[in-house]
Amino acid sequence: MAGLAVAALALLAALGSQARMTRIRRALRVLRGSADEADVMSVTTRHAAELARLAERVDALDARLARTRRDVASSLRHVAVVRYDAFGDVGGRLSFSAALVDDDGDGLVITSIAGRAESRAYAKGLAGGESEMPLSEEETEAARAARGLLSATARRKDTS
Fold first, then answer.
1. Is 39 strand, coil or helix?
2. Which H or E run includes 13?
């Protein structure tokens, strides 16, 4: 019984190889210019089907690329940090304002004010680079710097 199964598999493999060799011979006759019309049609049809499959794959990849570009544009990828001394008696520039924005300038500014005995943190939202809440000088500087990174990115995209 096992021998019969092996023989059947060998027969299928031989038939598959024969069919492939027939296709290769037809393609070779077409390339040499000695093909008849049936050979040319067979090769042309097979290649047309392969091109159609490839076109579908390209369309799917284009759609994935468009989704990826939208995802990247909405990610908080433009970051700027401004460090400073918030109080005259505390040195080392331990206070900071950090702006994180996407390609539209939407994001947030996070500020940490370090004092001698305590520290406080604040977060303010940004929409189009602007905040509904008033921004300190350092927060404004960080937001502008992050938007400057955004502008530099846009300039690089325009020239490439």
1. helix
2. helix 2-32
Two structure tokens written together for 92 = 């080392």
Query: Which two tokens mark 65?
Result: 């690329």
Maximum Cα–Cα distance for the chain, whole Å? 94
87 and 33 in a single domain? The answer is no
Contact status, residue 124 vs residue 135, Cβ threshold 8 Å: yes
Sign of CA dihedral 136, 121, 109, 141: positive
Residues 57-114 have pLDDT tens digits of 999 999 999 999 988 888 888 999 999 998 877 778 889 999 999 999 999 999 999 9
Cα 4 versus chain centre, distance: 53
Domains held by the chain: number: 2
Domain containing 7 equals: 2-72
- Assigned token pair, 86: 């918030």
Same domain, 155 and 99: yes
3-state secondary structure of 115: coil
pTM for the complete prediction?
A: 0.58
